[in-house]
């Protein structure tokens, strides 16, 4: 029985910054950003978007027929959580009107969390073939204005329905995972930006990818030539090029990695969702991919956990990735001036539980953050005439 991704939904905030303009504002050569890092644009999340609203918007992009009474599990993976106790999955399920007879919870392990959720969901469906699961990766990458990591910021969410007889990607039972306790990245409780050793983290990433893919070849007797495409977690797109170069000099795989990097170049780093944004980008931008093609996926989360696994493209996969909606979402975004971006970056909901209120967001987004009262955030749904709690 095939089990895997049956549908993909994507959301990114309505605002972005052009990185050539940001480079000039920071006194840097634009090639440092567009070539050295491999980014062209960076999504910017206003105070009216957080991981819950973005996750709900990504779910809203899914075909409603895939979220029926068969749904038995809802998982949100994030390292940008807004509550230390309550799972974002619970609020997302309510906002989007999902079947309440589900198991809902969150997963946290840096950028690896969505992969843990995806493979857990696959195992759940294997044990309950008539059920489906929903896995949502939602994150906001923030490093600070004029910081070393500023150009690798971003925001967005990817939602995936996992089912038997999937219509996008059948996941193979060949995952190889590796864990090692390393100090490359932290965001201690109470801090709004992480502490990261960029050079060490890059070296660890490359060490993990060569070690894990090598072990995969030992266990499953595969070679790089068995894959139509290799995808990687992309904190920035140049990282994917470095990872591929560590494994092969294949021109064919390099061309497909370029296609798989296009959406990341426009959105930036979305942590747990970056690998799956790369999958979506490949399927949207490379029209030579065919049913039956095998795709290798490398997931990495600082701290660190890495995993390599594969999937087989299903017949008719292109009809179930929402390509038109992705194109429209990106086309409708509003470019921010650098001062407007800096103002938006600083105008976030403050830590703690003090009351806060925001006016409606001027965007096509269905779900937005309305503010905070009685210690909790509340959300607007533009399809309803009244805001939550009014």
Structural class: alpha+beta
CATH superfamily of the largest domain: Thiolase/Chalcone synthase
State the total count of DSSP E strands.
Answer: 18
For the record, what CATH class of the largest domain applies?
Answer: Alpha Beta
Number of domains: 2
Order of helices and strands: EEHHEHEHEHEEEEEEHEHHHEEHEHEEE
Uncertain segments:
386-390
Please give a structural write-up.
The protein is α+β, with helices and mostly antiparallel strands and 390 residues long. The chain folds into two domains: 3-169 and 322-381, Peroxisomal Thiolase, Chain A, domain 1, CATH 3.40.47.10; 172-316, Thiolase/Chalcone synthase (Peroxisomal Thiolase, Chain A, domain 1). Helix content is 33%, strand content 25%. It is built from eleven helices and 18 strands. The protein has helices at 19-25, 30-37, 51-60, 88-95, 113-127, 198-220, 237-247, 251-267, 274-285, 323-331, 338-346, and strands spanning 3-11, 15-18, 41-44, 71-77, 103-107, 132-141, 154-164, 169-171, 176-179, 185-186, 195-196, 229-232, 294-301, 305-313, 334-335, 356-357, 367-373, 376-381. The strands form four sheets. Strands 1, 4, 5, 6, 7, 8, 9, 12, 13 and 14 form a ten-stranded mixed beta sheet that branches. A three-stranded mixed beta sheet has the order 3-2-15. Strands 16-17-18 form a three-stranded antiparallel beta sheet, with helices on one face. The longest helix has 23 residues, at 198-220. The model is unreliable at 386-390 (pLDDT under 50). It comes from Schleiferilactobacillus harbinensis.
């Amino acid at each position: 029985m095939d089990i895997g991704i049956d549908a993909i939904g994507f959301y990114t905030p309505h605002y972005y910054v052009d990185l050539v303009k940001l480079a000039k504002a920071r006194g840097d050569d634009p090639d440092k950003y567009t070539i050295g890092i491999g980014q062209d644009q960076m999504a910017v999340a206003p105070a009216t978007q957080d991981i819950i609203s973005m996750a709900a918007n990504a779910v809203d992009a899914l075909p409603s027929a895939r979220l029926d009474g068969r749904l038995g599990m809802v998982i949100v993976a994030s390292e940008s959580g807004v509550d230390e106790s309550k799972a974002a999955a619970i609020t997302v399920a309510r906002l989007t009107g999902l079947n309440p007879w589900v198991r809902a919870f969150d997963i946290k392990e840096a950028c690896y969390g969505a992969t843990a959720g995806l493979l857990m969901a696959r195992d759940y469906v294997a044990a309950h073939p008539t059920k489906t699961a929903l896995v949502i990766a939602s994150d906001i990458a923030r490093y600070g204005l004029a910081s070393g990591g500023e150009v690798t910021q971003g925001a967005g969410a990817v939602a995936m329905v996992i089912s038997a007889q999937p219509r996008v990607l059948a996941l193979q039972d060949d995952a190889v995972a590796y864990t090692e306790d390393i100090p490359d990245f932290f965001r201690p409780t109470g801090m709004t930006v992480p502490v990261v050793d960029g050079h060490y983290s890059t070296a660890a990433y490359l060490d993990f990818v060569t070690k894990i893919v090598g072990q995969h070849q030992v266990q499953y007797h595969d070679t790089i030539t068995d894959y139509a495409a290799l995808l990687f977690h992309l904190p920035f797109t140049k990282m994917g090029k470095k990872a591929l170069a560590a494994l092969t000099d294949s021109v064919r795989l390099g061309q497909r990695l370029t296609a798989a990097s296009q959406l990341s170049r426009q959105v930036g780093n979305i942590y747990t969702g970056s690998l799956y944004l790369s999958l979506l980008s490949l399927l949207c931008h490379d029209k030579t991919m065919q049913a039956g093609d095998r795709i290798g996926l490398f997931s990495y989360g600082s701290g660190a956990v890495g995993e390599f696994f594969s999937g087989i493209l299903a017949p008719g996969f292109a009809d179930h990735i929402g390509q038109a909606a992705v194109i429209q979402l990106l086309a409708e975004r509003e470019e921010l001036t650098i001062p407007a971006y800096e103002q938006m970056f600083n105008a976030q909901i403050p830590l703690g539980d003090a009351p806060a209120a925001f006016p409606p967001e001027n965007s096509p987004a269905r779900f937005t953050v309305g503010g905070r009262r009685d210690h909790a955030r509340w959300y607007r749904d533009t399809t309803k005439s009244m805001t939550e709690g009014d």
